[in-house]
Amino acid sequence: MPLVPLQADILGPDYRVETISLPPDTEGPVVATLVTLEPERSNGRAVLHVHGFADYFFHTEYAEWWAARGYTFYALDLRKYGRSIRAHQTPNYVADLGEYHAEIDLAWWRITQRDGHREVVASGHSTGGLTVPLWVHERRPAELVAMVLNSPWFDMQGPAWLRSPAARVAIERIGTSRPLQQIPRRINGVYGRSLHRDHGGEWDYDLDWKPLESRPVYVGWLRAIRRGHAMLHDGLDIGVPTLVLSSARSWFGAQTDETAATHDIVLDVQQIRHWASSVGRHVTSVAIEGAMHDVVLSRPGPRAQAYAAMSTWLDAWVPRPSGEQDDEGGDADHGDHRA
């Protein structure tokens, strides 16, 4: 159990939150935020989850699935995201993905040293699914036993010229000289509307922290992403079992609520599957038919398939402590282990 008192989070009294102070940057003071959910019956293990771009942690069903299996669940709102955004900051901006190492380091210390967890599963979604493996590759934490990546951003989607040497040079040059130059793009808000319960979706979240229209993209930030992609493409050395979840299909045509709810309309799932083996030596890639970009926010059917796949994979590669019993109430909502 944590040795310091934590505050109740906006998600409810079962979720506790703490602010992590970080060194200031050129915009001023910087913080990250760690949210914790304790299981009723702990198995001594933990999960650390990192969100995607223009996102933050509100995934209570995902957290409660882990807690039902005895894991203490931790979610990190990175600097300038969600609970960690401050008025003087450019939301979601960093010039180097390595900047996030500081808050992940401090969160990991809290989980393993302060709270005493000796076996930890790392989890990341979308951009977080790139940031987390890069951190693991750099830090190689001894307590890491597995990793789960939900639609990780492994490459630049879109026309081939965006991945050309000329495009890389342009991003490097402009990202260095004019890092806060915005990249024009059209966002129709379909993906956000497919999620939020006020617009036809299932989920409730803060639209100030996760806007329907996403966030501006800056060249300096994209330079950081492309450098991260290059490191991944060179091959990472992550020795623990890794599960890569994605939708079965992407859709980049005219977007509707239906295509957003049944396809990945954000990333190219072929790229995800192509680069999955670059993460490490032990990778399982599972495509979920009818899933959306954030697989664990999909409609109930695909969501149940995703949790069933997670359960089968976890039981195979991270066996439960001897004598531990299934919590059928937790898994019953998400599909059978045999799926």
UniProtKB/TrEMBL annotation:
Give start and end of each Serine aminopeptidase S33 domain: 45-294
Q: Where is this region: Disordered?
A: 318-339
What keywords are assigned to this protein? Hydrolase
Q: Which GO terms describe its molecular function?
A: hydrolase activity
SUPFAM superfamilies named among the record's database cross-references: alpha/beta-Hydrolases
User: InterPro entries from the entry?
Assistant: AB_hydrolase_fold, Hydrolase_4, MAG_DAG_Lipase
Q: Name one Pfam family in it.
A: Hydrolase_4
User: Record's superkingdom?
Assistant: Bacteria
Q: Which PANTHER family match?
A: PHOSPHOLIPASE-RELATED
Q: What is this protein called?
A: Alpha-beta hydrolase superfamily lysophospholipase
